[in-house]
Amino acid sequence: MASPKKKLQGLVAATITPMTEHGEINFSVIGQYVDYLVKEQGVKNIFVNGTTGEGLSLSISERRRVAEEWVTKGRNKLDQVVIHVGALSLKESQELAQHAAEIGADGIAVIAPFFLKPWNKDVLINFLKEVAAAAPALPFYYYHIPALTGVKIRAEEVLDGIQEKIPTFQGLKFSDTDLLDFGQCVDQNRQRQFAFLFGVDEQLLSALVMGATGAVGSTYNYLGKKTNQMLEAFERKDFSSALNHQSHSNKSSHSTVLFCIQRFINFVVKLGFGVSQTKAIMTLVSGIPMGPPRLPLQKASREFTDNAEAKLRSLDFLSFNDLKDGNLEACS
Ligand SMILES: CC(=O)N[C@H](C=O)[C@@H](O)[C@H](O)[C@H](O)CO
Ligand SMILES: CC(=O)C(=O)O
Question: Which residues bind pyruvate (predicted)?
């Protein structure tokens, strides 16, 4: 049984896997990356080898080494390190789950298998159960991301009775825009101490209203500080500040943080939000080289990186320096 440890809450950064220009993993910057998240963004939880981390584009031995590096460098600095261990091969997934336990990770998360797919909730739960059983002392999270897995089984159904099947089940990472399904997950599990982690960053405020207890996302790598202020305002039940996070009321509604976060994410979405975009933006904002993604081909992403810098520097609503310093009040 999982030890009832501290509940995972607040912001969780979906970490990028830094790479060299040749596409090899650049382990040497992970320590610096931990410090950046903690000191500059106020983010102390991470989700490793997920979508943003390109977990499914890495080899199993790379995934093991990446997980080890984050756990080692995060020791005494981070609150929780959750490792995504989903894979098409149950054996590989179990191997990664066991490995996560051995290295002292704080939890594991698993997506639905996405090639030969589970056709109903019981088949999916049985797969998740087999993975969870390989790490019987680690909190287990189901990572619901139907747009990418193609597994459209509603999360509400997956959660129904899951704790009886998976005793280590501790929460849901919900990366979908169906707020009805998300709200049902919260409502149907009120007596349980599950973590409800929302994964569509641009809709976080709406998800908080529906009962999200935290959020996992790519944008918390570089918008963590501002998003934390929104969470704090929400926590104080200060909804107008959450929506309009600013100390001076004489600014136009366009200068509000929520809308600035939204504008910024919208800008990235228009660039074609993906791992290469996230890597390029994080490199520019943090100064830590994230390199190209493993996929797609490196040349294309390097072209993108050059483009991204020019575009980021010419945003009409936010200066590059204000973005870097997290001064989203400066949004105009
Ligand atoms: C598909 C994907 O990568 N989703 C991320 C996490 O679940 C989010 O953090 C998005 O990157 C973000 O919400 C922007 O759309
Ligand atoms: C965003 C997220 O949670 C992931 O990259 O897996």
Answer: 52, 216
Q: How many domains does the chain have?
A: 1
Q: Please count the residues of the chain.
A: 332
Residue located nearest, by CA, to atom 5 of ligand 1 = 217
Best substitution site from 82, 149, 201, 263 to test ligand 1's pocket, by max atoms within 8 Å of Cβ? 201
Domain that holds residue 182: 10-234
Domain assignment present for residue 306? The answer is no
Cα dist from 165 to 126, 129, 140, 161, whole Å: 8, 7, 12, 7
Please name the residue that has the structure tokens 């949004």. Answer: 331
pTM of the model: 0.93
Confirm if 182 and 215 have CB atoms less than 8 A apart.
no
C-alpha closest to that of 111 among 165, 167, 173, 181:
173
ipTM reported for the complex, 2 dp: 0.94
Most distant CA pair in the chain, distance: 59
Task: Give yes or no for a contact between 220 and 227, defined as CB atoms under 8 angstroms apart.
Answer: yes
Q: Each residue of 221-244: pLDDT tens digit?
A: 999 998 998 899 899 888 777 776
320 in any annotated domain: no
Eight-state DSSP code of residue 49: S
Q: 78 lies in a domain?
A: yes
CATH number, position 80: 3.20.20.70
